[in-house]
Amino acid sequence: MSEKECVKVEEIMSTPPISVGINATVLEVARLMKVYGIGSVIIVDENDRPIAIFTEKELVWSIATFGCEALDKKAYDHSVRTVPVVRKDSCIEEAVKEMDAHGLRHAAVVDEYGRLVGVVSMRDIAKAIACPR
After folding, report:
1. Segment 68-91 mean pLDDT
2. In the chain, N or C terminus with fewer CB closer than 10 Å?
3. Domain residue spans in the chain?
4. Into which CATH architecture does domain 3-130 fall?
């Protein structure tokens, strides 16, 4: 894509973002994933800044390791602490680079203050490329 064809992350991101605080349990996060049909939940600090991401992979790993006891543990303790983050005004290519660098399929989208405003996934990007608006 050339510069003038840049698709902005904010055009395709999911809003509002589904996020939890640092004390949310694995069970609470799993329920959010089920209710919203999503594969990841962003964990934010008290200022709504992304600090971790809990994906289906972490859910499976937690239960495989700790059994049912995992459900009562903090999701943060089993999450990926290096969250792919992109600004909402970034081009989708930047989101792909961030996700690829972290080995994840989701990225937190932030505003100019670093606060979570959305989530973008590889699926969102694939749809934008295959079916431009």
Report:
1. 96
2. C
3. 3-130
4. Roll (3.10)
